[in-house]
Amino acid sequence: MTDFFTMFFNLEYMLKVLPDLIGVGLLNTLILALAATVISLIVGMLVAMALISRHRWLRWPAQAYIDLLRGLPTILTIFLIGQGLPYMGFTFLGTSAYPYGIAALGLIASAYMAEIFRSGIQSIHHGQLEAARAMGMPYGLAMRMIVVPQGVRNVFPALTNQFISIIKDTSLVYVLGLALGERELYRIGQDMSQRVGNLSPLVAAGIVYLIITIPLTHYVNWLDRRLRTGKIPVVAEEPAVPGETPTKAVTA
Fold this sequence. Notes:
globular; mainly alpha; two-stranded antiparallel ribbon; 2 strands; MetI-like fold
């Protein structure tokens, strides 16, 4: 038992790696995750709109895109994009592996985001779109102003859950060989573990991951319950007292 704690919970090594985990690893992990999420939301929405299009020449490539990126292992896709594009001479993102890692994570996540958006949009009753069209709204405007916002609201917990997955997938970007100041949590923990011959730095990295992901997971569960039960906070106007301005109260 002593050997177990010495190998996995050596406090000296955990404290030694902590400054790099917080100052470098956590920052890069969040940058990678947030930037990839922005890409995935934009590309995912475009692919989702293509999936529900009435034109086959839009639906088929969109479906092929999703099948390809969801079918390949994440680490393989990251390597193919992050290493393959520069080897082919496509250096439009520069020579650092960092932006290619972001692009790879974003494109992979966009395939999952597209399916999430598609399910949310198609969950909205078609009568709402028909009513908007009957009032003279163009198809694109009706989708953008009426259907899509409601669909996104319905799948917001799933979108947040996908963000958690992106945070964890940032640990796979290490295969691109990031520079010293670009390392994320896993790579910093791994490097320290190899230097000291002990796994406690990796456990410390795992604890930092848990500090990020566990609160987000509970938030997703709470939000999902609120959406399913319809208990979303709304602003209600309280009756005005003569001579006073009406006030607003938030109710759940």
